């Protein structure tokens, strides 16, 4: 009954949200991996591979102990927190307070936010909601549905390690390589499932979603983020992509979708789209779980 448990976990996250950071298991895992990094760190890929193997083992072990797909999915999914963070940025923009909006945006993106305009803030939020709908909702639920509690928590361990060390920088280019590559593998199918779900919940834009994913997403530097962002852009009728600053490094992301650039009003639309994707996923997983129960009874 793993699919039904995964569906329950997705909906439990919507109703209950995240536990306090002081006893959130994912926060605790991050603290453990941070301490491990201080002991293991060397500027080479081999050290990063050891880091990943230990973290993955901890995630699998925790999942074996939990033995509940519903509970593990509730812990691993963070859709409500994602949507709440986006709404907080939206509220600051609605109040005309760019400084507060830029400060709140830091919790959603890794790019430089200090000089972003209202339109660029909106683009950043929409892109983050799209990408993290995969990371925070679809991927952990699908891994739970296919592999139970061990799949959910192992995925959350992989994604957390990627967030901590799997990015381009002088320190992590080598050490974080294994974390980034494993995260790419873990999210490959969920990213494409997210695009399908986007088309399902926005059927009028289904053809545009398919074309954006097929024609535009491959130009994105991430094999998975580009798929989700292209799907959201097409469904919203907006154009994402552009220049992003990461400290002294500048990346020019390809255009995704068609139409005008993102506007502050599109934040609420992206939040609703992410919520609808989560709902559709929960309904589909629950249907599969109930069908399995009926078939085996």
What are the key terms here?
297 residues, mainly alpha, two-stranded antiparallel ribbon
How are the elements arranged and paired?
Layout: H1 2-16, H2 25-40, H3 45-66, H4 69-76, H5 79-94, H6 98-105, H7 118-165, H8 172-175, H9 177-201, H10 206-215, H11 225-236, E1 240-246, E2 249-256, H12 265-296
Q: Could you characterize the architecture of this molecule?
A:
- The chain has 297 residues and is mainly α.
- The chain has one domain.
- The protein has 12 helices and 2 strands.
- It has helices spanning 2-16, 25-40, 45-66, 69-76, 79-94, 98-105, 118-165, 172-175, 177-201, 206-215, 225-236, 265-296; strands spanning 240-246, 249-256.
- A two-stranded antiparallel ribbon has the order 1-2.
- Strand 1 (240-246) and strand 2 form a beta hairpin.
- The longest helix is centred in the middle third of the chain and has 48 residues, at 118-165.
- The protein is globular.
- The protein starts with a helix and ends with a helix.
- The model has no long low-confidence stretch (mean pLDDT 95).
**In percent, how helical is the residue content?**
over 70%
Could you report the average pLDDT, rounded to the nearest whole number? 95
Number of strands: 2
Count of domains: 1
Strand order of the largest sheet: 1-2
**Which runs of at least 5 residues are low in confidence (pLDDT < 50)?**
none
Rg calc:
19 Å
Q: Quick summary of this structure?
A:
The protein has 297 residues and is mainly alpha-helical. The protein contains twelve helices and two strands, in the order H-H-H-H-H-H-H-H-H-H-H-E-E-H.
